[in-house]
């Protein structure tokens, strides 16, 4: 409430899977617009659950979670999905692409579900997709006629990043996007991600178990500190 | 979304093709059974038209119909000529066509009749018989061939043929002393007429003058010319067709004939007899339909299985779709759309397949079984069957779709394994 411009605002957020002990208990967390935040989350720290809550796929049991001043919990299910489509871009660890869609189609996939992203891009949906792919270091012309399953993991992750970024969503959530890459590729990928997030004006929340990446970010948090319910032992 | 479903299917074209082909085959079978059934019925129904009553010796309705019109089976007894004359002279009767069966020519039945046959016999939609070549028989030793007899045996006008005693394809007792000259060849009708050799009633009498109880009497050879000097009025006939002046009199005359005191007769209405025949064959038809329906169910279950097995490897894909904003309902719709496309493709392919098969076998079916398979548009019953297959496909597709929906709800954005 006190920071309506915050991209993510969390107060006393609690969540537990039915019949299980609490998995998320976050007293307070604010991520401002345009921030690049590293969130270190080992297994069992409630990382996936937090992502589900941020994406509006899971709803908090108690407390408040607002994205861009909107609480997904207060929206109807369809509106939540639309909200996610309009304002949040996701990059996952691996297998990020839809195998039966082409390179550019994978990037523009989100625009099918988001009138707002389409609107922002106007008629330039495909050219923006190609620009993003190019900016992320992919040679669209030579890859165009390949199946996306033939791309290397690094290439796939860049396509996924382009999909998350197209239409300039306010929030980009990256869930272990670099864990399948080698060290050099990791730094390069994060560098590119920073560049495009800056260009789009997107806030970046980068979640990883690997603390070695933390120095690359202006702000880094440990989920085990943020989430009182985090119990790394639960990983087993 | 349709494009999405289509691309997803194309991505798995191997299993998709097999699934579609399974559905196509089962569709072709089900609709084919329906087509053959209805064509068989209509070809039976179109064999005889315009005839009000068929009269023969006392027999079952279906039996009399089968041997008098369809040349199937054997007549049990004959109708005496005197009785025939008496009934033919009844005031309500407009015309009669006598039929005398029992001989054959190289597997084709020989039918003894009079000129009235060519005048009054009607088939299909009350079409009269037409001559492709020649004309009705005039002399005693003249024959008129059905179109198939002439075509298959390569006969033309003026050829001589010999009639065999009995109805086997191979006969050892021939009426070879009295050959027949071909006077006419009928145009094709699509009925048993095409497979019949027509001769005058008097000829049937003539060739049997020197026969008794199925064998030729030794030493009593009567030449063809000598036979003509005998009285060739038949003593009996197998059956006769009756046309009435007014159809109102049909039931009255039928009752009179059935109660005729002179001999035991049966008069049947062709339409009623056909109905009885259908009720007999209905059991077999339904069994066939049931089997075909089971095959369709198996085909559709196959599709369901194929969709179910892919669900697991598609969890990731569903999670990606969810992450870019697809609603769970969209996932459900996508999976339903896939099942629908598969079923629809199967049905379309199946119908095409059926028409290809029909086009390929119709010549054979017509010549071997006298079954004329039309290539017309699907009938109402066939469309109904197609709609039933489609609905079954949708229902069967719901199961994997619903499972995928539930799973994508619980998976959310991350596939939990």
From TrEMBL, chain A:
Pfam families in the cross-refs: ABC_tran (PF00005)
GO CC terms of this entry: plasma membrane
GO molecular function annotation: ATP binding; ATP hydrolysis activity; transmembrane transporter activity
InterPro entries: AAA+_ATPase, ABC_transporter-like_ATP-bd, ABC_transpr_LolD-like, P-loop_NTPase
UniProt key word ATP-binding: yes
Keywords: ATP-binding, Nucleotide-binding
Ranges of residues in domain ABC transporter: 8-236
PROSITE patterns for the chain: ABC_TRANSPORTER_2
Protein name listed in UniProt: Putative ABC transport system ATP-binding protein
UniProtKB/TrEMBL annotation, chain B:
Membrane spanning stretches: 290-311, 332-361, 381-403
Subcellular location(s) of the protein: Cell membrane
Record's keyword terms, sorted: Cell membrane, Membrane, Transmembrane, Transmembrane helix
Ranges of residues in domain MacB-like periplasmic core: 17-259
InterPro entries (UniProt xref): ABC-4/HrtB_transporter, ABC3_permease_C, MacB_PCD
Membrane topology reported for the UniProt record: Multi-pass membrane protein
Cellular component terms (Gene Ontology): plasma membrane
Chief place of localization: membrane
Pfam family, one: FtsX
Domain called ABC3 transporter permease C-terminal: residue spans: 290-406
Name recorded for this polypeptide: Putative ABC transport system permease protein
